[in-house]
């Protein structure tokens, strides 16, 4: 059998692309090396508890009955109902720098009022920036990299406000150190500040479960424990894949969510001297603390806190194993659910040094995880109430974990700094979706898969 399309990776982008293609009667096979789907946004069970990986919140929130925005586009294109994602909006989040706190929720007017209060001399410039964001076309697949910092500085003169605005956007979507592409900036600004956060009560597994169910109902084939060892090519065209067990599958087209550099390596190709195929280096360590009470009971009511301990914001590969100067504090409990989650939890994320974590011997690796768990918590206590006496279980994952379960070089979370917006590669029937295509986050990943499937494999928008 020759498939119409083989999709590498059963993450959100691969599953969404598979559903879109299967709707049009295409014979589609999704290949996943691991026994768990989801990729960068997955889940696992440890000591009787379920944990999400990646998902802090679904961005691009739209309330029931909405017609516009990426979430509603996905629901239409995949033919889901709003209830299939069961999203509960956030309580409210904040960006905390010394002397200034900017709070935001899913109502943009509230955030604009915060800017006006905290930075009154900058609010007119902020509004001009928002006007430019509102008219920017993220669908222009031919645009080139433009510095977000430089573009922001055309409207905002206070570097502290620029850093505070960038902090959540970079933590949740920038593969570049110190700066980000303006197109990526616009995508993230809209998704976080203008649309906002939400979460399914059961976490990312609900979304993944519904995606798989829909894909299989349309005749799609999902193969787990089916890693791709090699792509079969003649130098210009891909005819199929060789699996880890030696099995060969043929396809008219291949769509890869594995990353640009990682996909070219499967072709046996040297990575071109081209910034688009240079692997990223931004990765993180994340701690998970399970608590014996809800965070609100010890005074923590915010959904997500983005913190930084100085006016300067250093978003870069950490020179130390972990950079504890800044980070993200997420409480999955603090969303507007109909009923509380069974247990409290706090997840704290900080920038990391991938090479340090990749090269540790196993015994030292376990010790380092314990040590840096303590350091990350100690640092974060400056920004939220001290919850350490309520911790009843912990886990920590690192760049090494990310590489193991995604295959991403350096354990990079946001892929290559240069995005390939049109999803093309040096091979005429091999395309990219997901992180290195350029649409990020839960909703962005699905939109990426849908968009590339429409553009190249269905010839429809």
TrEMBL record:
Pfam families: NAD_binding_8. The keyword Oxidoreductase applies. The keyword Oxidoreductase applies. InterPro entries: FAD/NAD-bd_sf. Keywords: Oxidoreductase. Signal peptide: none annotated. One of its GO terms (molecular function) is oxidoreductase activity. Belongs to the carotenoid/retinoid oxidoreductase family. This is Phytoene dehydrogenase.
């Amino acid at each position: 059998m020759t498939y119409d399309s083989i999709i590498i990776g059963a993450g959100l982008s691969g599953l969404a692309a598979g559903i879109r293609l299967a709707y049009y009667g295409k014979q589609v096979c999704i290949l996943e090396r691991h026994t768990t789907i989801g990729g960068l946004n997955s889940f696992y069970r440890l000591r009787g508890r379920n944990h999400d990986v990646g998902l802090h919140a679904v961005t691009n929130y739209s309330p029931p009955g909405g017609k516009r925005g990426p979430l509603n586009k996905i629901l239409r294109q995949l033919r889901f109902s709003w209830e299939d994602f069961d999203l509960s909006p956030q309580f409210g989040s904040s960006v905390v720098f010394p002397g200034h706190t900017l709070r935001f929720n899913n109502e943009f007017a509230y955030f604009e009022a915060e800017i006006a209060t905290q930075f009154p001399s900058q609010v007119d410039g902020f509004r001009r920036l928002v006007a430019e964001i509102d008219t920017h076309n993220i669908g222009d697949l031919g645009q080139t990299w433009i510095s977000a910092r430089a573009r922001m500085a055309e409207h905002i003169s206070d570097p502290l406000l620029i850093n505070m605005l960038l902090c959540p956007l970079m933590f949740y979507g920038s593969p570049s150190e110190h700066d980000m592409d303006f197109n990526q900036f616009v995508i993230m600004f809209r998704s976080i500040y203008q649309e906002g956060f939400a979460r399914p009560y059961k976490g990312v597994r609900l979304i993944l479960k519904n995606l798989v169910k829909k894909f299989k109902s349309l005749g799609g084939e999902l193969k787990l424990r089916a890693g791709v060892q090699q792509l079969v090519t003649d130098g210009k065209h891909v005819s199929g894949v060789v699996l880890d067990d030696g099995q060969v599958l043929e396809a008219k087209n291949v769509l890869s969510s594995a990353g640009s550099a990682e996909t070219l390596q499967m072709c046996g190709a040297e990575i071109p001297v081209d910034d688009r195929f240079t692997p990223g280096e931004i990765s993180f360590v994340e701690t998970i603390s399970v608590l014996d009470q809800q965070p609100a009971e010890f005074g923590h009511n915010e959904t997500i806190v983005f913190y930084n301990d100085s006016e300067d914001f250093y978003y870069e590969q950490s020179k130390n194993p972990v950079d504890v100067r800044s980070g993200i504090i997420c409480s999955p409990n603090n969303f507007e659910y109909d009923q509380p989650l069974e247990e409290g939890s706090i997840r704290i994320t900080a920038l990391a040094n991938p090479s340090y974590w990749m090269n540790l011997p196993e015994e030292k690796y376990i010790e380092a995880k314990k040590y840096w768990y303590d350091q990350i918590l100690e640092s974060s206590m400056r920004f939220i109430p001290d919850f350490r006496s309520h911790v009843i279980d912990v886990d920590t994952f690192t760049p090494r974990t990310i590489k193991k379960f995604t295959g991403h070089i350096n354990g990079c979370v946001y892929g290559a700094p240069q995005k390939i917006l049109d999803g093309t590669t040096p091979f005429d029937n091999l395309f990219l979706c997901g992180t290195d295509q350029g649409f990020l986050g839960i909703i962005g990943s699905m939109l990426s898969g849908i968009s590339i499937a429409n553009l190249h494999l269905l010839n429809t928008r």
